[in-house]
Design a protein that fits this description.
This protein has 68 residues and is an alpha+beta fold. 46% of the residues lie in helices and 22% in strands. It is built from two helices and three strands. Strands 2-1-3 form a three-stranded mixed sheet, with helices on one face. The longest helix has 23 residues. The termini are far apart.
């Protein structure tokens, strides 16, 4: 696996985690959030934000979302 595919895979793993957390939190389908993550591939930041309706991604020790 190339490094590019590995990085894309990391982004593709983060997206469903955020979406599942949104669902568990009872977020509306169009509700914007702030995602708190230990790390994410910076080159896929815009994709992650778009796919999860995140206004921004914030570095945090623990994975969490903040509803607006």
């Amino acid at each position: 696996i190339s490094q590019g595919l590995e990085i894309e895979g990391q982004a593709r793993e983060i997206i469903p985690q955020i979406q599942q957390t949104r669902k568990e939190a009872g977020c509306d389908l169009d509700e914007k959030i702030i995602a708190k993550l230990p790390s994410w591939p910076k080159e896929y930041e815009n994709l992650i934000k778009k796919e999860t309706l995140s206004e921004k991604l914030v570095k945090s020790r623990k994975f969490a979302i903040v509803r607006n």
